[in-house]
Amino acid sequence: xxxxxxxxxPYAEAAFDVALKQGLDQWSQWLKAWAGVAGHPxxxxxxxxxxxxxxxxxxxxxxxxxxPDVAEARNFLxxxxxxxxLMALPEIERQFHELRSAHEGVADxxxxxxxxxDDASVADLVPALEKRFxxxxxxxxxxxxxxxxxxxxxxxxxxxxxxxxxxxxxxxAAIVA
Length: 177
Known about the structure:
alpha+beta, Peroxidase, domain 1, Glutaredoxin, 2 domains, four-stranded mixed β-sheet, 63% helix
């Protein structure tokens, strides 16, 4: 959703700026907890109830998430509540994670394999991928039997497809063209 991403961006950037001073790990944990609660359908009903004042919505949300009494965290949630943006927390958390990864020079890599890969195979593959993509990678491996053989690696918006399915699709495109 482009609109939600645009709405969430300034909040994610503000949270990241504060987290750089206070602790990235703590803010990552808070945002993950907040996003989890904000994604619950009952919270949507609570937040959208026109009879409840913002202060009461904030108090309930803080109570549910067990947010510590840290001024910056409470102020962040207060700003989200007053601006009607609590439901954007999952997207804010996602963008915060991207900012943190970029700051640390790490990227998420999704490795799809036609067959299960053991830890040794992944450990051998990751350094080559890091060299190819020019950054440290946090690899998540999944099995996709549709690939027939080989792997498909996605890092951000870049994809390296060395699967049999990818090669077959490339041959088909070459023949049809």
